[in-house]
Amino acid sequence: MRTPRLLALVAAAAATVPLAACGGGNDDAASGAGDKITVDASDTECKVAASESDAGTVTFAIANKGNKVTEFYVYAPGDRVMGEVENIAPGLSRELIVELASGTYETACKPGMIGKGIRNAFQVSGSAPALTEDAKLAQATKDYQRYVKSQTGALIEQTTAFVTAVKAGDVEKAKTLFPIARTYWERIEPVAESFGDLDPKIDAREADLEAGQEWTGFHKIEKDLWVAKDVSKSGPTADQLLADVKTIVDKANTVTLSPVQLANGSKGLLDEVATGKITGEEDTFSHTDLWDFAANVEGSQAAIAALRPALEEKDAALVKTLDERFAAVEAALEKHRDGDGWKLHNTLSQADLKTLSDEINALSEPISKVAALVAGK
Amino acid sequence: MQRRKVIGLAGAGVVGAATAGAVAWRSTANGEAAQESADRIAFYGERQAGIITPAQDRLHFVAFDVITKDKAALVDMLQSWTAAAARMTQGKEAGALGAVGGLPEAPPEDTGEALGLPPADLTLTIGFGPSLFDSRFGLRDKKPAALADLPKFPGDTLDPALSGGDLCVQACANDPQVAVHAIRNLARIGMGVVSVRWSQLGFGRTSSTSTTQATPRNLFGFKDGTANLKAEETSLLDDHLWVRAGDGPDWMTGGSYLVTRKIRMLVEPWDRTSLLEQETIFGRNKGEGAPLTGRSEFDEPDFAVRGDDGEPVIATNAHVRLAHPTQNGGARLLRRGYNFVDGSDGLGRLDAGLFFIAYQRDPRRQFVPVQMRLARQDELNEYIRHVSSGLFACPPGLLAADDFWGRSLFT
């Protein structure tokens, strides 16, 4: 998803603007689980000092001793992200504080920030109050909010880098950054879309406009970069984009989506894939649609993952189906990886696109059942 | 002309009701009596509906690829399809909760665009393509020899993306919305298990499958299907249409093989062709549909008659001669094709033609030799292009509600 050249920049930005730890918050870091668990990350290893912990707040201290930028994750079953730290540059150390209930988890380092990562089992034991169904749904919205927060942080960071490159007139660098900044946007699109006026300002395509309507946002700059190949006049649009992104991030971090909205959001993201990304309409100038595709799927998966404990209770077979079909989509998409990123949409054959379309439909169908299940009827 | 057509249609209704009545009686014995009416074709019966059923006016035909490797998932889907098809052909919604009866938070069990419309004689007919009988589902041993892939015919310009398929469903109805609704719901139910490979809308049936129907015209303006097998010709149907015990695997006994060909017609050049040439190419006159050696439509063509110039009156490369049973070892087909217009092609030419559909007992002895002759010699080839091809084994009908499409094949 990111090119190596870029990673250094990203890491530099991350070092000066540390990502908020995605766990329970720094202020109560001392409470609960006691000592920090050290994680020695390298390009080939992920040594986690402990493989178990008591329930409560757990703090991981990750040191990147490798040569690649890495990430660290704690996953609940189904790859539900309990906490993550992104963009840990070589030589840097970061902390992740995460609240974990009794259960089986996995930790993962992701050298190069791609793939499933180097996984270790992590067992959490101890008494945790039995959760009612409603509590699980309430937890789902909290989990998802945490996910949104992690993505919005990166969205601002990456959009800033993109805007900076545009204003510097560096067309090549801006082209590289374009799909990366959009990744974070596309992962949380349902949240963004809940703010009706801002979404089109940031993400409208040329074809979406009415006659006379002013065009702003990512796709206007995309056209400048790929068609005009000239961003000397794009500065104001870039400034506006960053301002709009900051506004929407502020709003996104205060809004709470209901569990049903989460379910519909996960379906909506796949519909985005099926309608805009499969056809190449979204990134019609850059053809970077597969970046958006992957991000939409990841965002959908995150919403389903947040709902997972509640879904397990209501329909375990459906959860199994969703796991299988998410895996099938990932596998189909993986065939089109190109380095750290993706092949361009216009290099895929019609048969390739048909296969991707089939897999998305196969996943969307069971996901369409989730909302009614969550509504509890 | 108009008067005759009206009489023909009225007659079709009567025959439809009579057929349906016979099936309803059989269903009653199983405690599954269904209310039959003139615009409702029985779903359960010895044969699949939609083959000798008097040809309805509209078609939505679809071919699917199976995308799952899980046989149980495929069988499960076929059961869901059967239940939905049984309901929709009787004018009901695709699922028990229907378009508006379910949970507000859930997608409806029916897409709703046929609410308030009559059954419109909807028939749904399933077929299994040669490609289904590969290693995926353990069906190799059940593949009928008659389901061998069609040979390449001279002049074929087939688009693979519009050809073949593991499964097909033919939806025919007298209301296009009813036919489309049925296919749309089956595709929806099949998501993740099957994927639509190609589909075709058709209007204006180009064949009559019953003696009660007037012979319709194709987009070249000629009557089509004068020599077609008809539902009333029972013993001919046994010889030429229905698969007999011993013909192949048991699961196909009582079924029929379906060939589809999408034939693009180059209508603009045709429309610039003289009437004389048009009639010479077909070997029939345009007004009556009579063979050039006769006076009325159903006169038998006499291929031996020569004109004053010593040449055969019906040319040696005329369509009617090349396609005629007497010239093909007696091979007969039951055709139920449809005209199509898929808009225009971007060059201002009508993207139009004939979606040819033919049922038969064994394509190797019927469609293949006839089409090979036509492909090699037919003067009409100058004005047509075969762009899509399909071959499917359509099993016999389902006798009761506990049966499902494909059971004899998969279990």
Task: Tell me what you see in this structure.
Chain B: Its main location: other. Chain B: This is Deferrochelatase. Chain B: One of its GO terms (cellular component) is cell envelope. The complex is a heterodimer of chains A (377) and B (411). With 377 residues, chain A is of the alpha+beta class. Chain A has 2 domains: 3-15 and 133-375, A middle domain of Talin 1; 28-129, Immunoglobulin-like (Sandwich). Helices cover 51% and strands 17% of the residues of chain A. Chain A has helices spanning 4-16, 133-167, 171-187, 189-193, 198-203, 218-228, 235-252, 259-277, 289-314, 316-334, 350-367, 370-375; strands at 37-41, 46-48, 52-54, 56-64, 70-76, 80-88, 93-100, 103-109, 118-125, 337-338, 341-342. In chain A, the strands form 3 sheets. In chain A, strands 3-9-8-5-6 form a 5-stranded mixed sheet. Chain A has a 4-stranded mixed sheet with strand order 2-1-4-7, with no helix packed on it. The longest helix of chain A has 35 residues, at 133-167. In chain A, 48% of the residues are buried. Residues 1-33 of chain A have low confidence and may be disordered. Chain B is an alpha+beta fold and 411 residues long. Chain B has one domain. Chain B has 9 helices and 9 strands. In chain B, strands 1, 2, 3, 4, 5, 6, 7, 8 and 9 form a 9-stranded antiparallel sheet that branches. In chain B, a hairpin with a 5-residue loop joins strand 7 (338-344) and strand 8. The longest helix of chain B has 28 residues, at 2-29. In chain B, 47% of the residues are buried. Residues 1-36 of chain B have low confidence and may be disordered. Chains A and B meet through helix 11 and helix 12 of A and loops of B.
